[in-house]
Amino acid sequence: MSALPLRVLRGRLLQPHATEPRFTLWPDALLHLDDAGRITSVVAAPPGCPTPETWPGAVLVPGFVDAHLHFPQTRILGSASGPLLPWLQTSVFPEESRFADRAYAEPVAATFCERMLRQGTTMAAIYSSSHPGATDALFAELDRRGMRALAGLTWMNRGAPDALVRDTADALAATEALVERWHNHDGGRLRVCVTPRFALSCDEPMLRAAAGLAERHGLWIQTHLSENPDELAFTAQAFPGARDYLDVYESFGLVNERTILAHCIHLSDEEWGRLAARRAVIAHCPDSNFFLGSGCMPLARALAEGVPVALGTDVGAGRTFSLRRVAASAYDASLVVGAPVSPEVLLWLATRGGAVALGLGDQAGCVAPGYAADLVALEAPPSGTTGGAALSTLIDALLFQHDAGPALATVIQGRVRWGASPTRS
Ligand code: GUN
Ligand code: ZN
User: What is 357-391 written as a DSSP string?
Assistant: First the structure.
């Protein structure tokens, strides 16, 4: 579904601010796009405007950004064998082992991309399995769908079945080949991300090699940090010289402003300070954190410390591909820790904030001239209120009405990639 690029769109619009976590509501906006799918103008539709509403009754929001999820866990989403370490052994590793077979991975890649697009996700940071064929299949599918992504072959050389572990030289060679084939594909729409699974999966030479590879090619890095108390205890045993969990990664040069760290639940005050100083990104995954009983990341604190934050589904510990559901979980988690974060801030983190956090803030995530037209049309109740109340009523409905269906349409760079054909003038 990638018909001709749209040249004009009309509808209710939630427009994010570029740098502050807030939105402007346009009751009836008219957007013009160029033939490359970039927005050239956003204006209020004039009286008697001949352009019909593109998706009648819908509200347009920027495409959602999923800052953390696992492609080879698509089929085991919802497996309730937590907490983290037994869940990995029982549910995850047997399934990820099947991705050694590219023929198994290919249809899963198609399902995986479709499930993201159905929920309005246009950009993501993705873990593949530890297999080159499956990872190539994932990139090929992302490319076919026009999606924006950071994705990486998962590095692990211990603590998992033979079908998943790969020695450092092998992981390095496989990732170098993926860099050659896919990194910066289509003007940077697809990028290869260095992906050491977590400290317990990688020995010291592997972590050192991961940092070296990222440095050589200017690649982003993604890993997991401080998710579960047993994981913390085993990590301290495995790296007795490290002052804390963050230091394991820091000491190898793996933590900088191009690093995405999933979870970050059980950090010490000292770790918070160092994380903020290094400008690494937290991928906050509250639905997964609830499902595995991992705990609540203190989101208000992260924002107050100035740490860049994006939201992640963490499929398949997360039970949904919907960033709206994840934003709702983030709201619940913020209540649990007694420091509520507003729905408006959460919607911004799920869209514009995610694009900035993943390094694509100059191309996408804004609905303004010069940005790619990456948009989602969502079904929304008509607003009976006006002014600020209309904005908050609408955002509350988008995040908290869980029975709302998938997106009506998902548009990337001006092309409909999922959902209803637009009404054309
Ligand atoms: N830590 C290491 N691997 C994983 C994973 O696949 N999911 C989650 N939630 N945490 C992890
Ligand atoms: Zn994860």
Answer: HTT-TTTSS--STTSB--EEEEE-PPP-S-HHHHH
* Domain's final residue, options 304, 322, 357: 357
Query: Is 26 domain-assigned?
Result: yes
CA 65 / ligand 1 centre spacing (Å)? 19
Domain assignment present for residue 362? The answer is no
Q: Which ligand is nearest to the CA of 91?
A: 1
Same domain, 223 and 113: yes
The ligand with the least distance to the CA atom of 160 is 1
Question: Are 379 and 419 within 8 A, CB to CB?
Answer: no
Ligand 1: residue of 76, 84, 127, 315 to mutate (most ligand atoms within 8 A of CB) is 84
pLDDT in tens, 292-337: 999 999 999 999 999 999 999 999 999 999 999 999 999 999 999 9
Among 357, 376, 399, where does a domain finish? 357
Give exposure, 229-254, as e/b (b: 16+ Cβ within 10 Å): eebbeebeebbeebebbbbbbbbbbb
Q: Which helix (H) or strand (E) holds 214?
A: helix 204-217
Q: Phi and psi at residue 208, in whole multiples of 5°?
A: -65, -45
User: Quick one: what percent of the chain has pLDDT higher than 70?
Assistant: 98
**Pair 168, 153: CB distance under 8 Å:** no
| 172 in the same domain as 50 | no
Would you state the structure tokens that stand for residue 328, as one six-digit string? 């709702």
Express each pLDDT in 385-407 by its tens digit: 667 789 999 999 999 998 988 99
Is residue 124 a part of any domain in this protein?
yes
Helical H segments across 218-351, by residue range:
229-238, 245-250, 269-278, 286-291, 299-304, 323-336, 343-350
Neighbours of ion ligand 2 (CB under 5 A): 262, 314
